[in-house]
Write a structure and sequence with these properties.
Elements lengths: L4 H11 L3 E5 L6 H11 L4 E5 L1 H6 L1 H8 L5 E4 L3 H8 L5 E5 L3 H7 L6 E5 L10 H9 L5 E6 L9 H10 L8 H8 E3 L6 E3 L3 H9 L3 E2 L3 H4 L6 E8 L3 H13 L1 E4 L2 E4 L3 H13 L1 E6 L2 E6 L3 H13 L4 E4 L3 H10 L3 E2 L5 H9 L5 E4 L1 H4 L11 E4 L6 H8 L12 E8 L3 H26 L1
Parallel strand pairs: 1-6, 1-9, 2-4, 2-5, 3-4, 5-6, 10-19, 15-17, 15-18, 16-17, 18-19
Antiparallel strand pairs: 7-8, 11-12, 13-14
Helix pairs in contact: 1-2, 2-4, 6-7, 10-19, 12-13
């Protein structure tokens, strides 16, 4: 296989810098760029990635783009990790959950550290962030990969950039970052971007941020075809939904559904929209079934697939239980990740249920299907985009990717999708600015 022109440009970009951000569309081959760069130099590299990405994506990519380079996977329980560390290798693969342990216990004789899905380090108060910053000077080259750099707003950029360049471009402390790019509201947690903040950030990081022009990448992804599928709540469910919206409580099937806070109210409204509600009874959590409107809509989508593979996204465990009772399928995390990925890509899984947090980053599952159905929505733009990009990425052979959105009419579902669309604009503005600055 041969790298595409923009990927070759990416390799040269890495060769010329100590600090780099590969801000490329999801599925554009960020891993291929890094592996090809590693293959050209006699360096020891530490790769930090989400668990399934470390175990299922990097090994085959290294075999493909860096033959001869040795690698080891340091994941799992401590005995397994210690055994892996006893074997020398050019590239060490570690998952984020084990990063703190690794930094505190392993010999850090690496030239380079690569953070795959850099947004995992956006939280500057997390242990993994603090553990890395203590040892950041041990690595001569630092590289960050992500397709959702602004996925959680401007403030989330601070932690990511601090890990890459130590704070040289955007501020070495959170206070310094906020003083330039943010405005404080009435509450300590209430920070909003200053006017022009995004443009200032673009200018300050343009020298290390690699991206591609639309012309370079336009032919790499099939078009995404949204298919909104509306579900009408039955009268009793609508009455319960509206009462909960007004009063913060309602009664359904002799069960009291109570929401003491606004956040709990939104969460419960989404449950009702999806067809159920969790209630506390005798100190235990039980489930009240409310309707099957969205489940019926999913059935129509599955029937329209006529046996073609479909990836279904859920939020709550009860949604998963409802769907599997009517439509048995495979859950991403019920077997080892490699087995599920291989079976899906081989076309052996007609229905695969995924949660955004278990299948949201980096997995190469574009070979097994070209249709995704959202049943329970996430408020996170990053999770939303990442899940869609599991199918809409380089290597997808279908002419289009279908995005079925199962929406309960006049419910919080519509609010969530509107919020996701608004957040997309931030990411597009940011990337557009980088393209102009390049």
């Amino acid at each position: 296989m041969k790298l595409r022109p923009y990927q070759e440009r990416g390799v040269r970009w890495l060769e010329q810098r100590k600090y780099s951000l590969l801000l490329l569309p999801m599925g554009s081959g960020k891993t291929a760029i890094c592996c090809s760069w590693i293959a050209k130099w006699n360096v020891r590299v530490l790769v930090v990635a989400p668990l399934r990405v470390a175990e299922t994506v990097w090994p085959p990519e290294l075999e493909k783009w860096a033959p001869g380079v040795t690698w080891r996977i340091v994941t799992g329980h401590k005995r397994k990790r210690d055994k892996a560390l006893s074997k020398p290798a050019d590239v060490t693969l570690v998952n984020y959950d084990n990063l703190t342990w690794f930094l505190e216990n392993a010999e850090l004789d690496y030239d380079t550290i690569i953070f795959d899905e850099l947004t995992a380090l956006k939280n500057w108060s997390a242990k993994r962030f603090k553990a890395f910053m203590k040892r950041r000077g041990r690595f001569g080259t630092v590289v960050g990969l992500t397709g959702t750099f602004t996925g959680n707003g401007i403030q989330g950029i601070y932690g990511q950039m601090r890990c890459i360049d130590g704070g040289r471009r955007l501020g070495k402390t959170l206070t310094a970052f906020r003083s330039v790019f943010m405005l404080k509201g009435y509450m300590d947690w209430d920070w909003t971007p200053r006017a022009g903040a995004l443009q200032k950030i673009v200018k300050r990081i343009a020298d290390i941020a690699f991206t591609v022009t639309d012309e370079e990448y336009a032919d790499q992804l099939p078009p995404l075809v949204p298919n909104p599928v509306e579900a009408e709540l039955p009268p009793e469910a609508r009455e319960a939904y509206n009462e909960l919206l007004r009063e913060f409580l309602t009664e359904y099937d002799s069960e009291l559904i109570l929401t003491p806070t606004s956040a709990a109210q939104v969460n419960k409204l989404q449950q009702i929209a999806d067809g159920f509600a969790y209630v506390m009874k005798g100190g235990k959590r039980e489930v009240v079934s409310i309707h099957t409107a969205k489940l019926d809509a999913l059935t129509e989508i599955i029937e329209s697939q006529q046996g073609a593979p479909l990836m279904v996204v859920y939020k709550f465990q009860e949604e998963l239980a409802m769907m599997r009772k009517r439509h048995p399928g495979t859950v991403m995390n019920e077997h080892d990740a490699m087995t599920v990925v291989n079976d899906w890509n081989a076309g052996k899984i007609p229905i695969m249920y995924v949660h955004p947090q278990s299948a949201g980053h980096g997995l190469n599952i574009q070979f097994g299907g070209n249709a995704v159905a959202w049943y329970g929505f996430t408020w996170s733009w990053e999770e939303y985009e990442q899940v869609i990009a599991r199918l809409r990425r380089g290597g997808q052979e279908a002419e289009v990717v279908f995005l079925h959105l199962i929406i309960a009419k006049n419910t919080v579902d519509e609010d969530i999708l509107e919020a996701l669309e608004d957040h997309t604009d931030v990411g597009e503005t940011f990337i557009s600015g980088l393209k102009k600055a390049a």
